Amino acid sequence: MIALRPARGDEVAALWALRTRAVAQACAGHYAQAVLDAWLASPVPDSLARLVAAGAATVAQEAGHTLGYAAVDVDSGEVDAVFVEPREHGRGIGALLLATCEDMARAAGCRRLHLSASLNALPFYRRAGFAALREELYAHRSGIGIPSVYMEKRIG
After folding, report:
1. Is pLDDT at 142 greater than 90 in this prediction?
2. Which CATH number fits domain 3-154: 3.30.70.240, 3.40.980.10, 3.40.640.10, 3.40.630.30?
């Protein structure tokens, strides 16, 4: 049985490693290798630790194993992360985590959520009710532009 719980500060590095595995596998057919290399090499951002400390990150676990995590900035309404271990894709874990982000944001008074979706994640976010507003080059802190789609969902 999948259990959801708040992420802990001592697991930020492990969550980032999970993110790196997920991006490496899911994005491989959607991006040039040079883009992936820069994206995958980036270190843990301070924002992840901040969201974890604020109680705005959720971990999905089963039998003591971490299956995925998600984080939302309830001040801005930005879904910062939804990542699932590649071997666990297709089980609905991402949808559970995203629903938790929506619940947290709604409880904080957010009326809409927004995100920059990687090209491989578009179908996932569309199924969750997000609408694509525009294509963009996400300005990644590594200095590269990652082709993505800015999406939004009204939740209020």
Report:
1. no
2. 3.40.630.30
